[in-house]
Design brief:
Layout lengths: L1 E5 L2 E4 L4 E8 L5 E9 L6 E9 L3 E6 L7 E6 L4 E6 L8 E9 L13 E2 L3 E6 L1
Parallel strand pairs: 2-11
Antiparallel strand pairs: 1-3, 3-8, 4-5, 4-9, 5-6, 7-8, 9-10, 9-11
Length: 127
């Protein structure tokens, strides 16, 4: 399984970016896809996750710091997960990583829950 993240860049505060994470390999076995971020000198932190419920329904979870501003979605046809980021703030500046887990996960906001990671994409928000 490989994850390829893209879409990062430099944006002014209040702006928007959309990150993409293309998954190849055992995509039909993926139960949870997530986004984490890591700012310089800080631990990697949970941003959002989308988990499959049943055969075709999905449920999303968000960190409190991004609720109402970020939206994650999944397009099964091309095995891609998105993170739409609106109303960006300077404190959103970080390297953003996509992650994926095979099967069910009771906990989705922990780094240890995930089996596969993308390479990261830099998001910089200027004030």
């Amino acid at each position: 399984v490989q994850l390829q993240a893209s879409g990062g860049g430099l944006v002014q505060a209040g702006g928007s970016l959309r990150l993409s994470c293309k998954t190849s390999g055992r995509t039909s076995s993926m139960g949870v896809s997530a986004w984490f971020r890591q700012a310089p000198g800080k631990d990697r932190e949970f941003v959002a996750a989308i988990r499959r419920i049943g055969t075709s329904a999905y449920y999303a979870d968000y960190a409190d710091s991004v609720k109402g501003r970020f939206t994650t979605s999944r397009e099964s046809a091309n095995s891609t997960v998105y993170l739409q980021m609106n109303s960006l703030k300077p404190e959103d500046t970080a390297v953003y990583y996509c992650a994926a887990a095979l099967g069910f996960r009771a906990v989705v906001d922990a780094v240890a829950a995930y089996d596969y990671w993308g390479q990261g994409t830099q998001v910089t928000v200027s004030s």
